[in-house]
Every structure is written in C-alpha cells, then in structure tokens.
Amino acid sequence: MISNKQKIALSELTDLNWLKKNFFSNEDQKLELQAGDKVTTQGEINDKMFFVESGSTSGYFKPADGEEFKVFSTGSNMIVGIYSFFSHNNCSYTTVKANEDTIVYYVRKDQIPSRDTSEYCLFLEHILPVVVNEIYLRQMLTINSISEKESAVKKLFEHEKMATLGQLAAGLAHELNNAVSVIQSKTDWITQHMKEYMGEKDSKGLYPFFLKSLEKGQTLSSAEIRNRKEEIQQLLDLRESAARKLAKMNLTEEEINTIGLKENQDLIQRLGYYWDAGLALHDINLAATHTSHVVQSIKELGAANRNDTRNFNLLTSIKKTLSLLSNVLRNTELTIDVEEDILLSGREGDFMQVWVNLIKNAAESLSSAQLSKPEIVVSAKTQGDWINVSIADNGIGIDEESMSKIFQPNYTTKVSGLSFGLGLGLSIVQKIVTIYGGNIRLECNSGWTNFIVELPNK
After folding, report:
1. pLDDT in tens, 38-68
2. I want to staple 46 with a disulfide (CB 3.0 to 4.6 A). Which of 92, 233, 249, 327 is the partner?
3. Rounded CA gap, 232 and 99, in Å?
4. How far is Cα 370 from Cα 391, in angstroms, rounded to an integer?
5. Torsion 162-163-168-170 (CA) sign
6. Strand-by-strand arrangement of the 38-40 sheet
7. Which residue, among 450, 320, 445, 324, has the nearest Cα to 380 in the 3D structure?
C-alpha cells in the first residue's frame, strides 16, 4: 500500500480553493452518496471529474476471469475520475464506490474552458499538478504491487525450500535412527559394566577419578590446562606430557597428596588409564545422546513447537559441546569468556546443535587456513533483553558472495574430501535460533570471522 508519506495533499500541489470555487462548487452538480454507491463503473463512459468534499471512496478493478480487488482509496479534498476524464475514449478503468456517507462535486468535460482561451491555460496550471500526482500515485501502486509479488515469491521459495529440506531430513533421520539407537544402548551397557570392572580392579584409590571424568568430562579450556600444567610441572618435577595429562584432570594439590603421586610417580600412568577410560565413555555417551537429539531435531525440522523446554546453564552446554569437538580442536587455541550465571530456556540439545555447528565450522576454517596460531574465541554476555553469544575465529574469512548465501540449505563453502558437507548445518542453526525467538548474523572484520547469536533474555 502507498504510505502516508508518499501521498501528497492537493493543497500542497495547487490552489485548492481556486479549483473548488471555479469547478467544484455548483450545488446542482453535488452528489450525496451512501456507502456502496458508485461514482464510476469499470468499462463505462465517464465524462466527469469528481472532487471529494467529505467522506472517502475506493476504486476497484475486476479482471475478466478473477475476483474484484481494491486498487486505490481517496479521502476528502481529493479528485477521482482523472484517467477517464482526460482519456481519448472516456472509459473508466475502475469502479469507484463510496466507503461511507460521502459528498462529491463534479465537473463535466464540456464545462472545461476552450483550448484557445486564457481560462483554459489557467485551468491547466491548476489541474496539471493534480494529473502529475495521479500518475505518480499509479506508479507507486505498480511498484507496491511488484514488491508485494516479489515478497510473495520469496515466501513461496522459502516454503518450498523448507519443504525440500524437510523431505531430505526425514529420509536422513530414518536411515540414522536405528544405528543411533544401537550405539546409544550399547554405550549404556559398556558404561555400566566398565564402572563395575574399574571399581573391582582398583587397589590404589583411583576409581573416584574414573567416575569424575565419566560424569563431568573435560571441563577445562586449553588456556586453563596450559596454566595448570606449568604449576604441576613445578610441583612434581614431571615431563611436559605427564604434567599435561594431570592438568587435564584438574587435580588439586590435596588430591595429588592423597593418592601419593609425589612419592610414586609411576601411578601417573595408571591414573591416566582410569581418567582416559572415564573420559572416553563420557564423550561417547554425550556424543550418542547428542546424535540422537540431532536425529530427532532433523525429524522436527519443519515444526516450530518445543514442548519439553527447561532452563539450563549456557556455559555448561558450551563445555559439553567442546567435549564432542576435542578432536577437531586439538591444535587450536580456544578461549572461553562466558558469564557463569547465564541461563537459557529451551532444549539443551537444540542449543548444543548450534554450538557444535558454529565451533566445528570455525575449526575447519582454521584447518584450511593452516595458520601458525589458530584461535577460536567463544564469548557470551547479557545486554538488556538479549543474550549475545559470539563464536569467532581468525581464519581465512568468508567472501561477500558466500556471506549472502551462507544460511541457504543447499549452499556450502566446503570442498571434497574430508571437509565435504551437505550444506545443511547453518540452515539448521538459523532454524533453531529463529524457533527460540532469536536471530543470527555474520560479521567479518579485522581478520576475524564472527557468528553472533542473539537470544531473548527470559
């Protein structure tokens, strides 16, 4: 529709009082209309031009094989019937009806001054701005119509795109579901029996560290591990590899003393077995659960409802995600700067799917760039009604053409080989974020690629 800013009052274009006095004030040419009364009829001759004194009218067009639709509206102090009045055949292209009790004055074509008179020039001086404005309004109507059609086509394309994606997702989910169920059930079985076995075999008090890694996984960032490694090296005078293994366990000095590592450093290797076994089972369990959730999310890709929501800690969900990605992040400097008390509302698995995709994409970008010092920074903070989560990397960046297509389901920047991708990851990320009332945007500047997820702070 044409906005109020685009509409121009006749008083701004011409001397409205002059027009009314000279052409639209004859009481014998005054019509008092009720709602629905016609001023002109589509396809019929009209040799009159109408001035709306009060009330309002609308013009309707009916295609030969279609329904009637409204093409314009007028209010008081506006003129209708200009097209048919000045056209060579005086045929009205619309049916103009009163919307309410309306008063109009009209002038007939035979009442216009002759062309060779000064009065005709004066008439043109006042009426031409009105005609030009009418042409302008018709152009704007055409532009609006084209814009609305383009918007409708885009919406149809988005609908078809999601329908295609949904069909692909449903087939993929069906193929994966049985395999994932087997992995998850067997993982549960192995975990239970490993707990019993490790407990029975423990004679050095190491079983609690197996349980610790099994339940919590790897919770320290690479920077925290590096700092803790240096402290342990000084405390126990160990080789770097052994100190790093203990640093990953986040052992306190009290725990080191309790199990006698200072007196018997051979225990470090045995402790490593317990810790690594628990950590491996933790990550397999987490990956199996996450994969099961991903399959479920793919099935529900076209759905917008999330019934089983709850509050969960953002930092905890990010650390769980990092456990799944430890392999792809092993050569990357990772920094986490996330407020500890941020809570999100939803299904944690949905959001882990977001973090997995974004962090994995960043890691793969860094791998392609082959930087001497690859870095990923995961940060989050609250800003009023929003929670902003940022995942940035110092990789090769994304070109402008790719930035405009990056969230399309069928688009991928990956190449063949181990980096091959279906191009579904970021479209799913955008879908999940949108479902929860948020949005995601991409920024590239100063050598950093930054995906920013904005979520409601509920």
Report:
1. 999 999 999 999 999 999 999 999 998 888 8
2. 92
3. 85
4. 19
5. positive
6. 38-40, 95-98, 57-61, 69-74
7. 450
Residue that has been written with the tokens 């099935």 in this structure? 299
Please compute the mean of the pLDDT values over residues 131-151 and round it to a whole number.
76
Give the phi and the psi of residue 148 in degrees, each rounded to 5.
-65, -40
Cβ 16 vs Cβ 89: under 8 Å:
no
The conformational region for residue 41 under phi > 0 = left, psi -120 to 50 = alpha, else beta, is: beta
Contact 457, 386 (CB under 8 A): yes
Residue 422, classed as helix, strand or coil, is coil
Q: Which CATH superfamily is domain 306-458 in?
A: Histidine kinase-like ATPase, C-terminal domain (3.30.565.10)
| Residue 396: Cβ-neighbour burial (10 angstroms; 0-12, 13-18, 19+) | middle
> What are the extents of the domains in the chain?
10-112, 165-303, 306-458
Q: Does domain 10-112 have CATH number 2.60.120.10?
A: yes
Task: Please give the pLDDT value at position 352.
Answer: 86
Question: pLDDT tens, 413-446?
Answer: 554 333 333 335 788 888 889 989 999 998 888 7
**Is the pLDDT assigned to residue 331 strictly greater than 70?**
yes
